[in-house]
Amino acid sequence: MMSQIDFRKIRAVALTALLATGVTAALLQHAPSSAQGSPVVRGLPDFTELVEQVGPSVVNIRTVERVRAGAGPTGNGLDEEMQEFFRRFFGQPLPGAPRQPQRPNRPQQEEERPRGVGSGFILTADGFIMTNAHVVDGADEVLVTLTDKREFKARIIGADKRTDVAVVKIEASGLPAVKVGDVNRLKVGEWVMAIGSPFGLENTVTAGIVSAKQRDTGDYLPFIQTDVAINPGNSGGPLINMRGEVVGINSQIYSRSGGFMGISFSIPMDEASRVADQLRASGRVTRGRIGVQIDQVTKDVAESIGLGKPQGALVRGVEAGSPADKAGVEAGDIITRFDGKLIDKSTDLPRLVGNTKPGNKSAITVFRRGSSKDLSIVIGEFEPEKPTRVSERDEKPKAVAAAQSLGLTVSDLTEAQKKELKVRAGVRVDAASEAAARAGIREGDVILAIANTEVGGVKEFEAAVAKLDKSKPVNVLFRRGDWAQYALIRPLR
Asked: What are the C-alpha distances in Å from 54 to residues 28, 171, 193?
């Protein structure tokens, strides 16, 4: 009896051990191995504090131009916030304000017409505001609205088209100024935020990450590329890091449709600050120049001439009498250093030279016929920008025949032009004035259809226009470069 009981106990203990071993094995099979290492889990950022911190420093900017009363029809019904869209992407503003009635026997009056909508941010507590040059370009009046709904007339201190930076001033004090961040600390993959007025929708917040730095899309600016949603009206607004500091000015987007496609560009704040300082000091920006035409150095060229690796700026031509010519720079030279700074790629050179004060004596190193040579060069001054605005009072070409009511002069496309543009038919715009110009159409555009009627040539165009109801707007499909887009023309009456 005793031995039987012992046997049962032994069997029970063995069974318990076996079950325990199986459960443990199952748990081990499904448990993550600490040796493999688990990925670090990070939560999404919270932007609420940043919005509260920086939001009051962001402003809405509206621009107005004055035109002769009676110079065109009344507004086309487009909301004011759409003006920036058409001006930025179609090239010309559309009318949006009702014209003022004229009094008999009085000099012709002017009317104010909305021209564009953009954004900006407060640099100083006493009212200096930074924005894009294209936001205020050609404006007769600039209106700044703060987040507390106060509105001020702003004075344009200066605008630099080459960098697309402008500074305006409002008469106010105690304003919430932004903090400027260090662009050098900005990293690819870092979260950033934008605040602006896309399509006139004030205080809109969007966010994303830094996609790339030092993106070469211009002569003077290495842009910050992000995937932050930027649309017309965001122009001039701040790009903000997670410390609440402004690191850039939202300026451009890459788009085939006119809308946001996931790639936007911002002007680095260090570059913008240098420009803003000059604008505040003198109202204009002075840049250095040396008078050379440059190109990239390819790998094949670098290896063939003994340079080693592709770096520097290849001099393709030297302007006669220029600082470079006087310093002994020759076509075929490769400029490898400027004032001791390495020229890694050709676009580095114009930025370094441009940021050098005219009259300064600088040292440059050129690679010529297998060896390096040091030269001394006196920096010249870049030609100041010339105003590009065309007054409506200037004489304009007149349209003929049926197109008179639209303000268009057109001509047939040659076969070569059709082949180049890859179109079957259409007419080229030789001149656009009055209604057509206000709709954004300009010389060089190719009209493909009008009022939903395909245009084969001038005869078909004239025939289509002759059938139009002159009291109603007409849609026009046209090509500009590689892009096709629509415009709405309100015929003159």
From this structure: 51, 21, 10
* Closest listed residue to residue 392, CA positions, set 64, 68, 86: 68
Do both 67 and 148 map to the same domain? yes
- Residue 337 and residue 348: Cα distance in Å, rounded? 10
- Whether 258 shows a pLDDT value over 60: the answer reads yes
How far does the chain reach from its first CA to its final CA, in angstroms? 122
| Given 134, 251, 346, 433, the catalytic residue | 134
In a domain, residue 382? The reply is no
Token representation of residue 5: 């009981």
Residue 260 sits in which domain range? 179-276
Helix ranges (DSSP H) in 344-491? 348-354, 415-421, 434-438, 458-466
Does residue 319 sit in the same domain as residue 268?
A: no
77 & 186 share domain: no
CB 491, CB 406: distance < 8 Å? yes
Residue 118's contacts (CB-CB under 8 Å, 6 or more residues apart) are 60, 61, 63, 84, 131, 132, 135, 136, 196, 197, 233, 234, 235, 236, 237
Q: Give per-residue pLDDT as tens, 262-305.
A: 889 999 999 999 999 999 998 888 889 999 988 888 888 888 88
Task: Report CA 410 to chain centroid distance, whole Å.
Answer: 31
SS3 (DSSP) at 298: coil
165 and 216 Cβ atoms separated by less than 8 Å: no
8 Å CB contact between 453 and 468? no
Catalytic option among 57, 197, 235, 264: 235
Lowest mean pLDDT, pick from 13-22, 330-339, 365-374, 439-448 = 13-22
The bridge status of strand 58-68 relative to strand 128-131 is: unpaired
pLDDT of residue 182: 94
Tokens of 385: 């920008």
Which is higher by pLDDT, 410 or 131? 131
Co-location of 163 and 201 in the same domain: no
Whether this prediction's pTM lies above 0.90 is answered by no
Check if the beta carbon of residue 476 is closer than 8 Å to that of residue 487.
yes
Average model confidence (pLDDT) across the chain: 79
Is 255 or 351 the better-scoring residue by pLDDT?
351
Q: Tell me if residue 3 is catalytic.
A: no
Task: Classify residue 386: in a domain, yes or no.
Answer: no
Instruction: Identify whether the C-beta of residue 84 lies closer than 8 Å to the C-beta of residue 197.
Output: no
Q: Which of 164, 333, 348, 445 is catalytic?
A: 164
CATH code for position 83 = 2.40.10.10
Residues in the chain: 493
Task: Say what the alpha-carbon torsion angle 241, 187, 255, 220 is, to the nearest 10 degrees.
Answer: 100
> Is residue 134 among the annotated active site residues?
yes
